[in-house]
């Protein structure tokens, strides 16, 4: 079959879960026992080797609900022309967001919106593979006018117009080849959350923090918010381990009311926190603005649970955040994240993405690298989160070198999972979970 005649033949979905709660990996004040999971999909095509892989991240129970949401989108995808889909991912984005009956479940937020993101990201993976480029380069090389056409400006045009977006992207192309070469040479700055999970002992925290500095990281992050005395003790141990020159962020994972967030953050002032992350509900724009005023000069960061471009717009308009933390899989994929990156550029707010989880590092690196090469043109005060969990399950896992993400060179989103891992950890009938269930019945 010719490339022009190729079609999407199937959307295969998988409920993949890893038992990370057993070692308290990923534990924080709001989520004490996460089992890192992915609602994973593969777009099969009639043109042989080309497939599109995508997923969204959850933490265990409910991943089956997320998979069901992806399944509900299948009829919009199967049978579509591969060439047309890859030439205009925005057309599918609009079709998925615009399904009025499914839209009722949001609109543009929650489980359905995350499912759309998984499918849309799979399309970008497929498109970049067909072009023979990693997604960051595929985006950086794209015509600015085409990128603007990929963005939905509905509800955000009062803050960012298509003309402004085109101007930002056109200006961002200046010097892009030199920045791409520098990216390939040096990589993109990272910070690590690996030392800071709330369930870790002080000894493990100290050891991992010291190892992070030795590995070249210049910023670490600690989870806080369950018990103030514990947080003071842990922050003291971490600061003593890394010294005064390493940035140390803290993350409350939405645990506090507004007044509590201000008081708790001030109680940690002695340890020089660089930012306080998710201090309250991700939907509370005015609350974040009040916290930002109350904790200055500590920065306020949020975004991993912000559900769409509209809430990001309001956080920026209200002067509520110092650091924008987009997520590759929370919103409706690359198209919506382009809007969010452009909003951040318009307002002059640095983007430091959320990562970790299952494959989020592999995905989000491409968005930051595109932003550096062809939009903001800088890595100043910008870092991508890194968590050293579960990368061994991916065909092209992230590589960290001297505290930097090494730029991927393989085509696509470089976030395809190994088939053996899919077979082993698909719930409940994968080899791992079947053995678990057999043991439980014995």
TrEMBL record:
Alphabetic keyword roster: Lyase, Magnesium, Metal-binding
Catalytic activity: L-fuconate = 2-dehydro-3-deoxy-L-fuconate + H2O
Enzyme Commission code: 4.2.1.68
Listed InterPro entries: Enolase-like_C_sf, Enolase-like_N, Enolase_C-like, L-fuconate_dehydratase, Mandelate_racemase_C, Mandelate_racemase_N_dom, RHMD-like
Domain (Mandelate racemase/muconate lactonizing enzyme C-terminal) ranges: 202-298
Residues in the signal sequence: none
Entry-linked CDD domains: rTSbeta_L-fuconate_dehydratase (cd03324)
PANTHER family, sorted: ENOLASE SUPERFAMILY, MANDELATE RACEMASE (PTHR13794), MITOCHONDRIAL ENOLASE SUPERFAMILY MEMBER 1 (PTHR13794:SF58)
Protein known as: L-fuconate dehydratase
Species whose genome carries this gene: Streptomyces tanashiensis
Lineage: Bacteria, Bacillati, Actinomycetota, Actinomycetes, Kitasatosporales
């Amino acid at each position: 079959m010719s490339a022009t005649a190729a079609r999407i033949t199937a959307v295969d979905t998988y409920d993949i879960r890893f038992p990370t709660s057993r070692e308290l990996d990923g534990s924080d004040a709001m989520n004490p026992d996460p089992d890192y999971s992915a609602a994973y999909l593969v777009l099969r095509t009639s043109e042989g080797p080309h497939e599109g892989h995508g997923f969204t991240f959850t933490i265990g129970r409910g991943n089956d609900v997320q998979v069901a949401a992806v399944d509900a989108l299948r009829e919009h995808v199967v049978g579509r022309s591969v060439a047309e889909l890859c030439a205009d991912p925005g057309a599918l984005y609009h079709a998925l967001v615009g399904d009025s009956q499914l839209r009722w479940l949001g609109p543009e937020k929650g489980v359905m919106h995350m499912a759309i993101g998984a499918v849309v990201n799979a399309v970008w993976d497929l498109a970049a593979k067909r072009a023979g480029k990693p997604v960051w380069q595929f985006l950086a090389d794209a015509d600015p006018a085409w990128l603007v056409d990929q963005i939905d400006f509905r509800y955000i045009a009062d803050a960012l117009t298509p003309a402004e977006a085109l101007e930002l992207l056109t200006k961002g192309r200046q010097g892009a080849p030199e920045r791409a070469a520098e990216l390939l040479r040096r990589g993109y700055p990272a910070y690590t959350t690996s030392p800071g999970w709330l369930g870790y002992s002080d000894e493990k925290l100290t050891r991992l923090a010291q190892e992070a500095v030795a590995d070249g990281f210049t910023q670490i992050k600690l989870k806080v918010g369950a018990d103030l005395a514990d947080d003071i003790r842990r922050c003291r141990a971490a600061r003593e381990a890394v010294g005064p020159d390493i940035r140390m962020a803290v993350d409350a994972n939405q645990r506090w009311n507004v007044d509590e967030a201000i008081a708790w953050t001030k109680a940690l002032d002695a340890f020089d926190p660089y930012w306080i992350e998710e201090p309250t509900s991700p939907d509370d724009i005015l609350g974040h603005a009040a916290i930002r005023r109350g904790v200055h000069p500590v920065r306020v960061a949020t975004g991993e649970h912000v559900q769409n471009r509209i809430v990001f717009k309001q956080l920026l308009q209200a002067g509520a955040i110092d650091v924008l933390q987009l997520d590759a899989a929370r919103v409706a994929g690359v198209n919506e994240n382009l809007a969010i990156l452009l909003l951040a550029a318009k307002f002059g707010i640095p983007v430091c993405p959320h990562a970790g989880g299952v494959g989020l590092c592999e995905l989000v690196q491409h968005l930051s690298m595109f932003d550096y090469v062809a939009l903001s043109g800088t890595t100043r005060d910008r870092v991508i989160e890194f968590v050293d969990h579960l990368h061994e399950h991916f065909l092209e896992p992230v590589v960290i070198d001297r505290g930097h993400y090494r730029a991927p060179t393989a085509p696509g989103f470089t976030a395809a999972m190994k088939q053996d891992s899919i077979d082993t950890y698909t719930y409940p009938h994968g080899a791992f979970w079947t053995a678990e269930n057999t043991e439980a019945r014995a």
